[in-house]
Design a protein that fits this description.
Strands 1, 2, 3, 4, 6, 11, 13 and 14 form an eight-stranded antiparallel β-sheet that branches. Strands 5-12-7-10 form a four-stranded antiparallel β-sheet, with no helix packed on it. By secondary structure, it is α+β, with helices and mostly antiparallel strands. It is built from six helices and 14 strands. Bound molecules: fe (ii) ion (FE2). The site of fe (ii) ion (FE2) has 4 residues, from loops.
């Protein structure tokens, strides 16, 4: 699937951009399904606001439980002083996460394809398990910055194997908050780990500092990845990446799948712990 040049670029830079990986029709179908999920979703009293600065992330029972469910996270900027939505759900949601690839047939078909399994193999991921999925809306006007981070902070294995598969469902531009990445940054240390405080979903989470070496500073230390809809970007788990506020009048939808190797150790302190009745599945094609 990947050319030898693309594999070399992944090894050198820690990421690779694969144009035209999915069709615009496939993007449109996923987008339609994501919007339908939002339409069907009823916000509860204790809403989860996904604070885009990870340090301020409000970890609560619903966030931790989303490991095994399909949950809609609301943008902070879409709540009034009483914590009620001040706009329609479709333009208030930050993301859907984190198990739609195993719980929704449309997301499942998009995720478990022989082509994606082949890409995972090409970048050296052995026995990939689909750990988490996110459908990210990056709303016009309120779609916030996602601070520079390494995905292995949030999804840790020993050794580090987490690999991100980022699909542009809509065009990603400088104006609407495309991804930025630090070429070669995957060869630097993991700076910190995001850990649950106990096996219970009620006890919250903590960042554990491992190395105080600063992450690359946006935007100057990173390069922008402006890509059209249908593009796949593969990201090494140690690669520092960032995305800016959406300054444009249009959304920037993206879908991400994060995989780990089944052969690596997955500590029980990772925030994401699946229910026993919803085990992780190997990344491979499913019958259509
Ligand atoms: Fe990330």
């Amino acid at each position: 699937m990947l050319t030898s040049d693309q594999i070399e670029r992944y090894e050198r830079d820690g990421f690779v951009v694969v144009p035209d990986f999915v069709t615009l029709g496939e993007c449109a179908a996923l987008r339609d399904r994501a919007l339908a999920i939002v339409d069907e979703w009823e916000p509860t009293e204790a809403r989860t606001v996904f604070t885009t600065n990870d340090q301020e992330r409000q970890s609560n029972d619903e966030f931790l439980a989303s490991a095994s469910s399909i949950w809609c996270f609301i943008e902070e900027g879409a709540l009034d002083a009483d914590g009620r939505l001040d706009r329609p759900k479709r333009v208030a949601v930050n993301k859907i996460g984190h198990a739609q690839h195993d719980l929704d047939p449309v997301f499942e078909r998009f995720t478990y394809t022989p082509a994606l399994a082949e890409v995972a193999h090409d970048v050296g991921l052995v026995d990939p398990l689909a750990l988490q999925s996110m459908y990210i809306f990056k709303q016009p006007g309120i779609g916030g910055e996602v601070g520079c981070h390494q995905d292995a902070t949030f999804l840790y294995t020993e050794p580090v194997t987490v690999t991100g598969f980022w699909f542009a469902i809509e065009d990603a531009t400088l104006e609407n908050g495309c991804l930025w990445a630090a070429p070669g940054g995957h060869r630097t240390s993991l700076r910190r780990q995001f850990r649950r405080n106990s096996a219970s979903n009620d006890d919250g989470t903590t960042f554990v500092e491992l190395d105080d070496a600063p992450l690359p500073r946006p935007p100057d230390d990173l390069v922008p990845l402006e890509v059209p809809a249908g593009t796949l970007v593969v990201l090494h788990g140690l690669l520092p990446h960032w995305s800016d506020i959406n300054h444009s009048p249009v959304s920037r939808h993206a879908y991400t799948v994060h995989c780990i190797s089944a052969s690596a150790d997955y500590p029980a302190w990772n925030w994401l712990q699946r229910r026993p009745d919803l085990p992780l599945r190997r990344l491979e094609g499913v019958a259509a």
